[in-house]
Amino acid sequence: MKKIIFAVLCGLIAACPAFSADDAPAPIPRVSIFSTSTDWEAVTGRQLNEYRGQFMGRSPLIGRGLMLYYLDGFPCYGLGGSVQAWIDPRGDASHHLRLACVAAPKTINFAWVHAARDADDETTTGILTCEINGDGGRDFVIDMANCTRGPDWDDYE
Questions:
Q1: CA-based diameter of the chain, in Å?
Q2: Beta partners for 9?
Q3: pLDDT for 121-153, tens place per residue?
Q4: 4, containing H or E segment
Q5: Are 80 and 46 spatial neighbours (Cβ–Cβ below 8 Å)?
Q6: What b/e readout covers 113-123, taking b as 16+ CB neighbours within 10 angstroms?
Q7: pTM of the model
């Protein structure tokens, strides 16, 4: 039995064509995603602090309601479940915004969509950029009147 297995293995090896390193398939480049936001303290040498944003004001941008999703961007990234808010037509918000930042934010970006209050699953339209009102402290105000509509997602093609 051992002789038969040995003979079959030898036959298989002999039947395989020899190839050189030139015949080897080219390596597939690997994409490695490393987010520096996971360790901005180490990257910048500055300490992360929590900042809290409160929405206020009226704006034609709100329409029948505006669902906002905070988009991480230096010097801040969003904390947990406090990165989305629904703004009603009067300018009242469903949530505050909580951020971890290495410096007080001056502007922030949101993905946005006009939606009813409980429309969490709608696809967003594009970017909304908001100027921050604050004295550099840990609490700031996002006045909806100071927000401008940026490009829609289709504009990125």
A1: 87
A2: none
A3: 678 899 999 999 877 789 999 999 999 999 999
A4: helix 2-15
A5: no
A6: bebeeeeeeee
A7: 0.72
Sheet holding 49-56, edge to edge: 76-78, 97-101, 49-56, 139-143
Neighbours of 70 (CB within 10 A): 21
Place of tokens 């949101």: 110
Using DSSP's 3-state secondary structure scheme, residue 7 falls into: helix
Rounded distance between C-alpha atoms, residue 95 and residue 87, angstroms = 9
- CA dihedral (153, 147, 106, 51) in degrees, to 10, reads -90
The pLDDT-based confidence of 119 (bands split at 50, 70, 90) is low
Q: 66, 85 in Cβ contact below 8 A?
A: no
Helix (H) or strand (E) holding 14: helix 2-15
CA distance 84 to 29: 36
12 band by pLDDT with thresholds 50, 70 and 90: very low
